[in-house]
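Translate sequence into structure tokens.
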Amino acid sequence: MLVFLNGQFVPEEQAVISIFDRGFLYGDGLFETMRVCNGRVFRWAQHFRRLRQGADFLNIPLSLDGDALGNLARELIQKNKMPEALLRLTISRGIGPRGYSPRNAGPPSVVLSLHPAPDPAASPRWKLLLASVRLPAGEAIAQFKTCNKLPQILARAEADAAGADEALLSNTDGHVVEGAASNFFWLPDANTLCTPPCAAGILPGVTRTAVLEIAASLPLKIREVNVRREELQRAAGAFLSLSSFGIVEAESLDGIAWPPSPRTSKIQKAYRELLQKETR
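Result follows.
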């Protein structure tokens, strides 16, 4: 398989980064994972906007704009003949002097790679575990996909050990905020859809935004509210949103079961239709 690395398309086994790259040393970088459908990236503009905002926040200069990177992504998809895939875009600050200071580091490293798209039907409902790891409430950097994901890695390791499919994380205020690799939604009743607010310290996912658009069209009452674990036990259903799998219904949290929800099925169907429509 070919990947794009710093201006060149090269076989993946030849794609190497310096051991002094700050992305490798400190997680000093950003990434985006995007769904490729019908040979096109779903909501490329939204993904790139978040990446650019994150680069501005971290003060990492981008040498390529959204149009140029988008063209490279399309070329990579065509070269690999992968019209159905996941696209990962990674940007690190690049090589710099020893130490935490980013002074005199660069130029940034830019990587585009493709991966097989997962089959959502392989695991129709997921078992969730509430991890012991806490995320800082109201943390500004949480709104970007930085390459430093140690809390999410530790949370997912807890889920793996317990036989769960995904981990949910709480913040330092004790509110359940998001999955290790997903945004979280629950239905307190058949006509209301809730999700934690961005101010709780969540990543505002691109798929999350699509879900909110779909919910408004059904229509459902939409509430962005904080929630504690004990409140979720009374929910009429719950699901996750993520670029890789789309919309995944949750079966249980820490062994406490949720019933299948017709509303979630409608949202799943509407999301699949939206994915096809916007990439057709």
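Note: The first strand starts at residue 2 and ends at 5.
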